[in-house]
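ok trying again, last paste got cut off:
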Amino acid sequence: MDFKNVLKEIKGNLLELMGAKFDDLKTESKKDVQDFLEASKAKLERWTTLLAEGNLTPQDYKWLVESQKDLVVLKGLYAAGVSKIKLGHLKNSILDTVINTAIGLVTKTDENTDDTETS
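nice, full thing came through this time. structure:
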């Protein structure tokens, strides 16, 4: 499993999420996504690798990613006047997107590996 591809997919999905919710604040939301991914990259890579190797369950992975909620700062959106309540909901959506994307890609990779091994 190539983590760069996972990270690229996560980033794309997060930017899509942010664009859907804050189309008029693309610059701010893009920077906030980039800052979060930069702050979380090492841990996300380690946890995603452990998940792919079967050393973490999806539930463990979810718990670990959710522990990173404080790293989702969203300074740009806050400075642009987005309410704290909306930002709280957005943080949850961001973490859910990271979790669902990574687990989906790892599961897909596992299925492809199983198909290759049985052929």
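cool. The first helix runs from residue 3 to 21. The chain has one domain: 3-110.
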